[in-house]
Every structure is written in structure tokens, then in C-alpha cells.
Design brief:
- The complex is a heterodimer of chains A (204) and B (100).
- With 204 residues, chain A is mainly alpha-helical.
- Chain A has 2 domains: 116 residues, NADH-ubiquinone/plastoquinone oxidoreductase chain 6, subunit NuoJ (Four Helix Bundle (Hemerythrin (Met), subunit A)); 38 residues.
- Helix content of chain A is 76%, strand content 0%.
- Chain A has 7 helices and no strands.
- The longest helix of chain A has 50 residues.
- Chain A is globular and about 65 Å long.
- Chain B has a single domain, classed as Helix Hairpins.
- Helices cover 76% and strands 0% of the residues of chain B.
- Chain B has 3 helices and no strands.
- Chain B is elongated, with a radius of gyration of 17 Å.
- The chains are: A mainly alpha (204), B mainly alpha (100).
- At the A-B interface, helix 1, helix 2, helix 3, helix 4 and helix 5 of A face helix 1, helix 2 and helix 3 of B.
Chain lengths: 204, 100
Amino acid sequence: MDDKLQKPFYALLGVVTLGLLGWGASSAGAQGVAFGLFTALTLGGSLICVWERSVVRSAFSLMGTFTGVAGLFLLLGADFLAVAQILIYVGGILALILFGVMLSPPDLAERKLSRVLGGLALMLGAVAWVGSKVAGTVTWATADVLPEPSTKVDEIGVGFLDPEGYVVPFELAAMILTVALVAAVYIARRKASDLTDPRAEERA
Amino acid sequence: MGLGAYIAVSAVLFAIGVVCIVARRNMIYVLMGIEMILNAANINFVAFNRFNGDAMDGRMFAIFVIILAAAEAAVALGIVLNVYHLFESIKPGDADLMRD
């Protein structure tokens, strides 16, 4: 049953992508097409991630999600953040996840399609319900009233180091990164013989 | 594109991330779902920043979120490796040493 649904799933993704592109083109021209493309990349990548049985495929489809989010950042005028997103997520975290995939056993029977589809229906229904409630009461800002985005990177640096700005969170983030990475190396390098499962015999 | 479009994208991404955490029985999927949720939050931060006068605050928060996500991914992978050594399984339900 699983393999029979594979083709309809990807066909549906393709149709939704085309619909998004068309909706973007008709509502906001070239920028709308870019928005539709990045949205399709983001949501399609994450949907494939939940859908696919193989962890490797899921990890690689997550690359689409991260790239799409970087594209959305570009559309929002946050150039530096888009580049940082690609460097850190696509280059770093994705490689880390792939190493985790390599070091863990394959289990192609783990996905329960009913659970995935039911979860998706439930959560997307909840989002649609909340969205309809919110959309009735809020008027959203539109793009035509916006100022030019500031794309200067040095503003971010000044924001980090300015005592009136974010210097304390910046130092805290540095501390957390150091502590977390050293701790991660320490945890991951412990020998298997140092770890004991008190119920190993019972389990075997 | 208005603010509402970005909020909608981030809401759907968040929903899919939650499904990824809850519906799959594999710790790697839990990690991937957390990354999706953090990305959804980041889209919100940057979009609200852009549509509220572009005062940089939202972007700074997004950068801090990315920093913490990197640290979290490294630590979580170390934990997953140890759980696999200990239980020879990476199903979240199998790590139950503290249950009794």
C-alpha cells in the first residue's frame, strides 16, 4: 500500500507547487513567483521529510527546507541571515544529521503511514482553524508601505557589541556554544564499555 | 507579499515539524522536527521585524536562535549516539532507564 501512494504524493506536491507559483505570479509578479518557489521548497522539503521511509532521503529533503527558508529571508531583506542560514544549516547541521544517520541502524519499517497522515491532517486542520480565527480579526501589513531594507552587515556587528544593544546575550551565546560543544565532544567520545545498562541481561 | 503570507508559511512549517516529532519513531526525526520548528520561529522573527520598521531586533533574535540550534544539534547527536550504544535502538520509547 505504501508504494502505491508514493506517486500520488509526489504528483500532489507538484500540483501544489504549480498552484503556489501561479498564485504568486498573479498576486505580486516576479516577487510573488520567488515567494511561491521558496514556499514550495520549504513546505515540500519538510513534507517529504515526514513522508519518506528512509532517513537519508528525509535528511536530504530537509536541505530543501533550509534553502527555502534562506530564500524567504532574502525576500524579507535579511541578506546576512540568509547566508548564515545556508552556511550553518545546510553546511553544518545537515552534515551533523547525516553523520547521525550513518551511525544509526536503518529501519525501513518504522514509518506508520496512518500516524503520519493522521498527524498531518490534525495539525494542518488546527493551523487552518486558528488561521481562520486570526484572519477574521487582524489586518496584515502589506509590502507596498515598506521602507527599503537595510542590508548593511556592520549594523549587526554594532548591535552585537553595543552596550545598549545585545552585548550580554552575545557573550552568553559564546559561553553556551563553548560549553555545549565541549560537552558534546565529551559525551560522544565516551567508550561503550563505560556505559552500562543495568537491565542488559533482562533485555537479552 | 504581505505579512500574512509569511506567517501562514511559518505556521504550516511548524505544524509539519510537530508531526515529524510525534509521528515518527526515530530520534533522528525528532532532531529534524526540532530544526523545522526553529526555522518556523525564525521566519516569524524576521517577517515581523521587516514589517515593523526594520529595527534589526528580530534579525538579532533569529541569529541567536540559529546559534542555539547549532549547539542543540551537536549535543543532541552526542546523546543519540550514547543512547544507541546503551540500548542498541534509537526509538524514543526504548530509552526507559528512569521509568522504574
